[in-house]
Design a protein that fits this description.
heterodimer; A: about 400 residues; alpha/beta; 2 domains; eleven-stranded mixed β-sheet; nine-stranded mixed β-sheet; 8 helices; B: about 250 residues; Rossmann fold; six-stranded mixed β-sheet; about 40% helix
């Protein structure tokens, strides 16, 4: 499918879809329709106000084939991982109603629905508790021309089943655009821990859509280390009573990075709980954005929702936009949200220095500790160790921390 | 060891210290007593090198060097220690890891090799026992979730680890019950020695029952108004600061 014909993203939409089952053709057709009608986001699109996507929207890309993340670990017992293309050919009925599970997509997610060619379906049948993590990796390669990759992953975890998924999007800063969609469908009392790492992820627009049945628990830890232009959305639909989600994120940017994290948590049923903690550090001339919204629907009583975003601004040239917000349409709820943007705590810094610790090392220790508290929540030990190491490499003077520990 | 000459300090343009003169020799323990707002903590912070304190006049010599020209970490490396009145919590930085960084930074300054993990653990166990600091607290984040007494014990634990030449203890007794006060005082007394000097800052005389000073100074309104032996502290306890103030009236 790789070709040298370069087109704009919208220009690459076909006029009709004639492959696959009826329901898929309908999904793709609807997505294309939405795009033709509303286009891709601009500066005037509220949710994309701070994301400079114009360079992507206006650019011409060639379609690259390598959009399917590869399994980086042996597949544990009790899980299947199948090619979406194969399943859509041989048993399409298995996927009916499980794509676009969060509702009709818009913008880049609609583009993904209309154009994805293959992907992965990871399925844990009801009752299977899978202890070993599944690791997926998508290498971001520096394409000679300007390539676009559509990546699609569907994760279904049956009732009472459990899964740990670790996704790594790493590579070189380059011209490639990655458009990734991960959909997660959690059954009753299902549990999933989801680690997602972006390391030099180039140009990337990614989203995770999670649909949660009663008493399910979804825990996400996102670590983003740099990115030329990264926009990452996590959306949790708490549809069953007693469902819980915990969304944690850490981002560290430098140079001309632009890294943009959005979360949407919809409390659609009662007795659900959500908690979000995102922390970021911006230095250089980078820009970081956090935009999180918690929507408590009518009738979602006994909701508990907390949201916190804390940022360290380490350079005068760096920018942070933070916008946590709540929309509440129920009365018996406990909700909190807060955001801070600041510099290192001068009293803490002074305390460390009075103990003989040189200022650059004291700075590094506090900076490292600020993000490490999130990295510490990465449930997968090898990834956690790798992220700690990456922080030590990326935070100025943090190399010295190694010498004293 | 320490020589303060006619020290004047302003904070936000307001004079706080108005001509302090003080000389402490190795092996001595001096106490500075004074009411709230007299400038006690300002003196401690100026000695440790905190930002925001403007020295408008005078100088401070420490081991013959101009102390006020030195960065806080250099002062520490040269053997100055400040025990904070309100030790700050540092979530995410473990007590023991922070101390190892501190001990080895100071050792490096002295041209000594860093302590390896085993020697460091041995030393820290020994010193933690001195102030009865539970092992679990040494591993937690610095002062995070510590009670008032635990924070003060942690300060003395750090002092024991860093083995300073001059320890400035700012209201180490505040917020301590009598049992904790005894533990902290015993920890301090264990560190007294012929090569070490201490400046103990306190509002109340009761700490000085346990850490017996060689010299007592009374600081009122930014000036040392009286200097004497430990008997002066007893007198203050009886008559209060008002008594000293009245006695000074011409």
């Amino acid at each position: 499918m790789t070709n040298t014909n370069r087109q704009t993203l919208l220009g690459s939409l076909p006029t009709s879809f004639d492959k696959g089952p009826d329901w898929l053709r309908a999904l793709r057709g609807r997505a294309a329709e939405t795009l033709r009608e509303h286009g891709l986001p601009t500066k005037r699109t509220e949710a994309w106000r701070f994301t400079p996507v114009r360079s992507v929207v206006d650019a011409e890309f060639s379609r690259e084939e390598e959009g399917v993340p590869s399994l980086a670990s042996p597949l544990p017992d009790g899980v299947t991982a199948r090619s979406l293309r194969d399943v859509l050919r041989s048993e399409p009925e298995l996927l009916d109603g499980r794509l676009d599970l969060g509702g009709a997509p818009t913008h880049f997610a609609a583009l993904n629905t209309a154009l994805f060619d293959d992907g992965l379906w990871i399925d844990v049948p009801a009752g299977n508790v899978v202890e070993a993590p599944i690791e997926l990796a998508l290498a971001i390669t520096k394409s000679a021309g300007r390539g676009v990759v559509y990546s699609r992953v569907l994760v279904t975890v049956g009732d009472d089943a459990e899964l740990t998924l670790v996704e790594t999007y790493a590579g070189e800063e380059g011209g490639q655009l990655t458009n990734s969609v991960v959909e997660v469908d959690l059954g009753c009392n299902a549990k999933m821990s989801h680690v997602r790492v972006h390391e030099n992820a180039g140009f990337q627009v990614g989203r995770v859509d999670v649909r949660q049945a009663a008493d399910s628990a979804y825990r996400s830890t996102v670590v983003t280390l740099g990115g030329a232009l990264l926009r990452f959305d996590v959306r949790c639909l708490l549809q069953g009573k007693g469902a819980e989600c915990q969304l944690d994120g850490a981002y560290l940017i430098d140079g001309d990075d632009h890294v943009d994290h959005h979360t949407v948590v919809e409390h659609q049923a009662s007795h659900c709980r959500s908690e979000q903690t995102y922390r970021g550090i911006a230095s250089g001339k980078g820009t970081a954005v956090f935009d999180g919204i918690v929507i408590v629907h009518r009738g979602a009583q006994k909701t508990e929702a907390h949201q916190e975003n804390r940022n360290l601004l380490l350079s005068d040239m760096a920018t942070i936009h933070t916008k946590p917000h709540l929309e509440i349409d129920a009365d018996d709820v406990i909700c909190s949200h807060g955001a801070t943007v600041g510099s290192l705590d001068q009293d803490q810094l002074f305390y460390l220095r009075t103990r003989g610790i040189p200022e650059p090392l004291a700075n590094a220790m506090l900076t490292y500790a600020f993000l490490e508290s999130i990295v510490d929540r990465v449930i997968h030990e090898p990834t956690r160790a790798r992220m700690r190491e990456a922080l030590l490499t990326r935070i100025p003077h943090a190399e010295d921390i190694r010498g004293v520990t | 060891m320490l020589k303060i000459e006619d020290l004047h300090v302003e904070v936000d343009g307001k004079p706080i210290l108005k001509g302090i003169n003080l000389e402490i020799e190795a092996g001595q323990v001096h106490a500075i007593m004074g009411p709230n707002g007299s400038g006690k903590s300002t003196l401690a912070y100026v000695l440790a090198g905190k930002d925001g304190y403007e020295v408008t006049k005078g100088r401070v010599l420490y081991k013959g060097q101009d102390l006020l020209e030195m960065a806080p970490e250099l002062r520490a490396a040269e053997g100055l220690f400040l025990g904070f009145q309100y030790p700050v919590a540092i979530p995410g930085v473990s007590n023991i890891y922070f101390l190892k960084a501190a001990v080895n930074a100071i050792r490096k300054h002295r041209g000594e090799d860093p302590l390896d993990a085993i020697d460091f653990m041995k030393l820290s166990k020994e010193k933690a026992a001195l102030v009865q600091l539970p092992d679990e607290l040494t591993k937690r984040s610095v002062n995070d979730g510590f009670s008032g007494g635990e924070k003060k014990r942690n300060e003395i634990f750090q002092m024991a680890m860093l083995e300073p030449s001059l320890a400035v203890l700012d209201e180490t007794d505040s917020g301590l019950d009598i049992d904790a006060l005894k533990v902290v005082a015993e920890g301090v007394n264990a560190l007294r020695g012929p090569d070490r000097a201490m400046l103990v800052i306190t509002h109340y005389q009761r700490l000085l029952d346990h850490i017996v000073p060689d010299v007592v100074h009374v600081l009122i309104d930014g000036q040392i108004v009286r200097t004497g032996d430990k008997g002066l502290a007893m007198q203050l306890e009886k008559e209060g600061y008002a008594g000293v103030r009245n006695a000074l009236q011409p």
